Amino acid sequence: MRLHVGCAMWTHAPWQGRLLPHPLPPAERLRAYATWCNAVEGNTTFYATPARGTVESWAAQTDPGFRFVVKLPKTITHERRLTGAEEPLREFLDAIEPLGPRAHALWIQLPGSFGPGDLGTLAGFLHRLPPAHRYAVEVRHQAFFEDARAVRALEGVLGRAGAEWVPFDTVTLFRSPPTSDAERDAWVKKPRVPRRSAALTDRPIVRYLGRDDVSRTVEGWGHWVGVVTDWLREGRSPTVFVHTPDNAEALTLARSFHDAVRARVPELEPLPEPAPVEPLTLF
């Protein structure tokens, strides 16, 4: 039994020399991160399809059981809105092929303007995707959280395609006013939607956004500790990504979340031991 946990990135300046060895060449950074967590969000692919050689390096630095949840490029999801995107989709699928089983799910994050009236487009797009991959969809239109008919319609589209609905839980962030620059920035940019915690498949994916204050982040994820515990006991295989506005402690928080679940499910397989960080020297 395994719970996969991770962060929004595998390299982050506040981690360097404190949690991860520094300096490290690019070809070693993901390997070091993978001693802390067993999953990562592939957010960089949203901005550009990576070179195949780059993806080969990602695969070489991780075990086959490591999970990438890789975001489709914005060219496909935001600019073309899933229509007429055959060529960029082909290029993307070819680029990520070296990940093999590590490509746990291809993540279709849709813009806030993509609403119930666009579900036919989403259904057609999912139907045309190759069955070799799993797919996970994140929506941000308010109707999918407030209109029961829209919720049922989206669940139907995803269910027929065997796709998961990815919740982005920002409830803790918006529970009280921001107290840092990073939190103020997140208040402007992140979606303010109700929490959703229903799984559609045997491999649910959760994105949880806390606060820069570690204690408030831990306090806010209590709901998810219970939900993930239940999923594991039902035989599901969840993946949970922990974010904070500045992500300075996200790496340790992801492991703490795993520990909190393992305290309730002792048979859960432990995470690997983090790579030691050598002290900095002057010479």
From TrEMBL:
<dbReference type="Pfam" id="PF01904">
    <property type="entry name" value="DUF72"/>
</dbReference>
<dbReference type="InterPro" id="IPR002763">
    <property type="entry name" value="DUF72"/>
</dbReference>
<protein>
    <submittedName>
        <fullName>DUF72 domain-containing protein</fullName>
    </submittedName>
</protein>
<dbReference type="InterPro" id="IPR036520">
    <property type="entry name" value="UPF0759_sf"/>
</dbReference>
